Amino acid sequence: MELTPLSAFGWEFFGTAMLLLFGNGVCAAVNLRTSAAKGTGWLMIAFGWGLGVFIGASIADPTGGHLNPAVTIWAAIAGNLSWSLVPAYIAGQMLGAMVGAGAAYLAYKQLFDHHDEAIPGGIFFTRPAHPHNGWNCVTEFIGTFALLAFIAFGPSGGELGPLSYFGVAFIIVAIGLSVGTPTGYAINPVRDLGPRLMYAFVLPFKNKESAAWNYAWVPIIGPLLAAVAVGLLSLAV
User: Fold this and answer.
1) Where are the alpha helices (DSSP H) in 80-217?
2) Which of 53, 124, 163, 220 has the fewest CB atoms nearer than 10 Å to its CB?
3) Which residues span the membrane (predicted)?
């Protein structure tokens, strides 16, 4: 199927919305007071996000299931995607991330309503373990570099497709388990920014934590720098 900007937007929107539904959903499950999964921990979150990537990417297979501007920018630099489609990809990803965060809220609304404390922002967006944004940017760069290197040079050989989504899901789990805790491993600008915007300005929580805007640039810049690095490396090898 030949992609148009409209179809690229649509598939990336749909796939990214599903990613955030499952990703924010597992974070809600682990953190909300009346959830049966309350306190089940980091392993649960890592696998929930990995499965969310598999589901979202599989749905967005017509576009290669990017779901992530870093993947899209890498693909364009490497010559695997026309630059003319990049704006449609990223617009779909951004709006999909926002809608997916809203869907996770609706799925858990009763549990949010019965959460006695401030609604944790970490259900929707990432927070670092320590407030040193330079090093946090390095961590985000490393995690995203690992993801993109697996896509570019792993078994798929840079060609994303149905079978490769299994591998991508497991590299997401591996990143979360191995290098994810310093920053919460956004490794995807829209996965962080879309839900952060929803939490801060749209979702009707009466008691919220700070949206931590002084940190919000880190999950954008770190992954995009990794996209450029892996893209240039793809051209060089």
Assistant:
1) 86-107, 109-113, 133-153, 164-179, 189-197
2) 163
3) 6-30, 42-60, 134-153, 165-187, 215-236
